[in-house]
Amino acid sequence: MLLIHPPIAKPCEPPAGIARLAGALRAHGKSCTLLDASLEGLLFLLSNPVSANDTWSRRAGRTRWGNLAALRSSELYANPDRYRRAVADLNRIVEMAGKPDLHLSLANYQDRHLSPMKSADLLAAASRFHENIFFPYFSKRLPELIEKVRPAIIGFSLNYLSQALCTFAMIGFIRKVYPGIQLILGGGLITSWLSNPSWADYFGGLVDHLVAGPGEVPLLALLGEKLQYPETTPDFSDLPLADYLAPGFILPYAASSGCYWNKCSFCPEKAEGNPYKSLPAEQVLYDINLLLKKHKPALLHLLDNAVSPALMKALVKDPPGVDWYGFARVNPLLADQDFCHCLRRSGCLMLKLGLESGDQSVLDAMHKGITLSLVNDTLKALKQAGIATYVYLLFGTPTETVTEARRTLDFVVTHREAITFLNLAIFNMPICGPDASTLQTSDFYEGDLSLYTDFRHPLGWHRNKIRHFLDREFKRHPAVTGIIRKDPYLFTSNHAPFFCGHGQMQI
User: Quick one: which of 124, 143, 60 has its CA closest to 94?
Assistant: First the structure.
C-alpha cells in the first residue's frame, strides 16, 4: 500500500495521519510506503528556475538555498526581521511559479478557474491532470515509486481544501496510467464531506473507496486483516524528517480525536457529530518516549482539538523530555499558578486557547462553558509560568454586535501582556450546524461541497461591517498592533513556539 499526503499543506512537520496508519499497518504485518508529496512538490517548485525578472524575484531565486538552510536552523528564529524576509523570499518563488492562474503560497493553493468546493471542478482536475502545476513532479515521482513498491492500493489523505485539486489531479493520473490499482480517499476533509446529509456519490468510477474518520480498520479490511492491535505507535520512518521547514524535527502526535467538551454551538466537530475518542495517557507517554528515542525531535506538537486535563497531569507527572505545545480549553487547572509552573517544567512552551469572545453573553450563547473571570486567571497563571499563549478570537456569531466586539477589544487590551499571539477570524456557519436551521441562510461559497453556509445576521452584524471593524478599529489599536506584529509570517502557530525559548519571547 502507498499512502500519500498531497500538495499543498504547510511544510513544517510531517503528516501525522499517514504516519499513524503506517504504524497500524506494520504492526499487523502489512507493508506500506509513505509519500509526502506536499513537501516534495513545494521543494520541486523552489528548485525550478525563477522566470520573473523583477528585483524581488531575482533576489529570492539567488538566496533560496541559504534561506532554506536558515529556516532549518535555530539561529534565524532569534532575528524576526531576517526570519520574515527568508520566508517571504521563499514564498515569492512559489507565488510567481503559480502566476497567472494560481494563487499559490507555501501554505495554500487556489485556482482562478477551478474550485475545490465543486465536485465538477475536482473531476475536471482529474481529467486534466497534465495541467496541474505539480504534474512535472508527480508524473515522474509516482511511476518511480509505483514501479519500486508495486502497491495494490494507493491511499490519499485529504485534509484541507488547499490539497483537493492537486489530490484529484494525482488521482486522475494514476487512474489513467495504472488503472488496475485501487484508489482510496480519506482524511479530515473527506470526513466532513461525508457527514453532510446531502452528500452524493460524486466520485464513483474515479475513486474506489471513500473513508470517513480513522482509517485503520477500513485499510486493514481491504488487505484482508482485522484490527487486532488498536493502540499502535505512529511510524514516521519513511518520511524525510530533515527536509521540513523548521529548526529540527517537529513530532506531530494526536492523543485524541473529536473534542472532550463538544458543546460549542459553532464547532464543526459538533455539527458533524464526530465522537470524542482518546488514547490512554500511558499509551500516549509510551508512544512519545519511543518516538523521542528514535527521532530526537526538537518539538512535540500535540494535535488534539483540546489537550485534556488528564493528559496535562500525565505530562506533568512524567515529562516527555522535549518542549511541546498544543490547543487547550480554558479550565480551572490552567488557572492554578502552581500547576502552570509544573506544566512549564514539563516542556510546555505555548498553549493555543480558543477564547472566541471577550463578552460573557456571547460566550454563554455559544455554550463555550467558560467565564471571563476564569480566562483572566488562566492568562495570568500562564504568563507567570512563562508559557506563551496563542489566543483565537471569532467575530460575527449570531448574538454578537459591534458592542460585544468592542468588549472583546477591551479584554485584549486589558490582558495584552499575557496574550503572546492573536488569531482573528470571521465566523463561518457550519452547513450542518445546530443554528443553521434557525436562521435565514444562503450559499456562502458556490459549490456542492461547501462546508459552510452564509446567513443573515439577526442583529445586522454582517461580514462587511465586521471586516471594517477589524481593519479600521480592532487591528489599529496600538496594543493589538503590537501583538499581531509578533505573529510568524505565513507559518503562524506552526513556528510560533520557536520564538518562545525558555518562556521568554524573542520578538
Answer: 60
The answer to whether 455 touches 440, Cβ cutoff 8 Å, is yes
> Which residues of the chain are in CATH 3.30.750.200 domains?
325-503
> Residue 153 contacts by C-beta under 8 Å, 6 or more apart in sequence?
1, 2, 181, 182, 183, 184, 219, 222, 223
pLDDT value of residue 285: 96
Kindly indicate whether the domain formed by 325-503 is annotated with CATH number 2.60.40.10: no
C-beta separation of 260 from 278 below 8 A:
yes
At position 294, the amino acid (one-letter code) is K
Kindly give the residue spans of alpha helices, DSSP state H, lying in 150-239. 161-177, 188-195, 216-222
408, 305, 391: which is closest to 354 by C-alpha?
391
Measured over all CA atoms, what is the biggest interatomic distance in the chain, rounded to whole angstroms?
Answer: 62
DSSP state of 43: H
- Report pLDDT digits (tens) over 349-378: 999 999 999 999 999 999 999 999 999 999
What's the confidence (pLDDT) of residue 367?
A: 93
- Supply the pLDDT for residue 502: 43
Task: Spell out the residues 6+ positions from residue 75 whose beta carbon is closer than 8 angstroms to its own.
Answer: none
Rg (CA), the chain: 23
- What is the distance between the alpha carbons of residues 273 and 264, in angstroms, rounded to a whole number? 12
Rounded CA-CA distance 9/30 in Å is 27
Least confident of 178-187, 247-256, 452-461: 452-461
Residue 453: closest CA among 419, 418, 422, 428? 428
Contact 313, 358 (CB under 8 A): no
* Separation in Å, CA 286 to CA 22, 205, 257, 279: 17, 42, 18, 11
- Residues 106, 246: contact at Cβ < 8 Å? no
Using DSSP bridges, classify how beta strands 299-302 and 250-253 pair: parallel, antiparallel or unpaired: parallel
Reduced to 3 states, what is the DSSP secondary structure of residue 217?
A: helix
pLDDT tens by residue, 296-309: 999 999 999 999 99
Contacts of 179 (CB under 8 A, 6+ apart): none
Q: Which residues of 346-368 are buried (b: 16+ CB within 10 A; e: fewer)?
A: bbbbbbbbbbbbbbbebbebbeb
Q: Is the dihedral of CA 315, 355, 482, 248 positive or negative?
A: positive
DSSP result, 223-274: TT-----SS-----TTS-TTSSSSSS-EEEE-SEES-SS---TT-HHHHTTP
> If you average pLDDT over every residue of the chain, what do you get?
94
CA 40 to chain centre: 18
Grid coordinates in use for 427?
Answer: 465566523
Q: Name the pTM for this structure.
A: 0.95
Cell numbers at 322, concatenated? 522535549
Three-state DSSP at 213 gives coil
